[in-house]
Fold this sequence. Notes:
Elements: H1 2-7, H2 9-26, H3 35-52, H4 59-64, H5 74-92, H6 97-121, H7 133-152, H8 165-174
Helix pairs in contact: 2-3, 3-5, 3-7, 5-6, 6-7
Amino acid sequence: MVSLIVQLQIVFVLVCSFVVLRGIGWLGVTQLSTWRAAGLGALAIVFLVTSSAHFNGMKYDLAAMLPADFPGGLGIIYLTGVFEIAGAIGLLVPRTRRLAGICLVLLLAALFPANVYAALNGISLSGEPPTPLWLRALEQLLYVGMVWWTAISAQPMAAGRRPNRENIAEHKQAFPGGATS
């Protein structure tokens, strides 16, 4: 049971930051006044947390997740960490949000084979057993779904769509300086 809790740390970070950020929105911080905005912040936090592993002692565990014949080693680990940081920042900038979301989805898809390799070959992370493949796949789907919902699927309000507090706030965050109808 403890192993499962350790393996779900990042999901815990995502859920807790999502709820806390939305709570801050309820307290009056307009930038977090929608679930989508809170989700963007939570994802930025998650990608910043996960990127830190690419630059500390865990980088060696991450490098071990790559097949032996895969070129790049630690260079790939550093590069993917930089991509996660750039994606986290990009999610928070309305002008780059959609592109950052697309790039993060592609990054998650590109990284998934390393998780498959680690699960199938029993490669541990921080001394913990590898996350079971079925659980890692569900986690990846959660992250892809959150990125898609918060960053990619947000569209300008269509003509005739009835504005309400939430969609106007989302529109203003995603498209600053644009019309709201």
